[in-house]
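for the writeup, i need someone to sanity check this before i put it in the appendix. the sequnce is what the collaborator sent (i think, or maybe the updated version? ugh). structure was predicted straight from it, no edits. if anything looks off just tell me and ill rerun, i have time this weekend
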Amino acid sequence: MSTSAQPRVTLKLATSLDGKIALSNGQSKWITGPESRAEVHRMRAAHDAILTGVGTILADDPEFTARTDPMPEKQPDLIVLDSKLRTPVTSRILQPFGRSVRVYHCEAAPPSKDPAFYERKARLQDAGAVVIDGGFYDSRPDLEWVLEHLANSYGQLMVEAGQGVTGRFVEWDLADRLVWFRAPKILGKRAIDALDVWPGLESLDLAPIFHRISVTERGDDLQETYERIR
């Protein structure tokens, strides 16, 4: 559960009406319309940092910048969860945007098991990333550890990630606010779900509850904003 020792976490989702973030072949641009995407840029500008996973970097090669009018004085910093340091040094996130890029990874395996690990680490550091050993257990993100590590640097954190990282924030009850953009499209059961959480709750009493505080039309889309009820 989020505490004063952690940044305030805003979880952003952009889905179809049936809660899908991409087709089964990975195609996801663009589910939501330009008005929703413009609001996402304004949201980024209002946060100190953005957190994502390496899967999103590899799939979409995003910049994760805030492109508003006028442009913000400083771009939000970027936090990447990347257990094996697979982030390519050619990624657009490493362009000189005047921000810090932190990459959290697992403690390195013995060099004999992954001789290229330290080479990848050195290349990322040479490209300007701050590479941090920690934030994982058994190759899975330890989000509480990461949030506590970020607490001294950031007050407002925005999460834009795939179903695994996003689902873990919900499952571990670490999201304070949820902003959900819904496009008027149905993608079907083979499409990719927005949240990968719990193999199956055994009681409705265990489900986290969010209070809807606003609904806004963004072109053809709806933006729903929720606060976590604790």
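The two ends are 9 Å apart (CA to CA). DSSP finds five helices and 13 strands in the chain.
thx in advance!!
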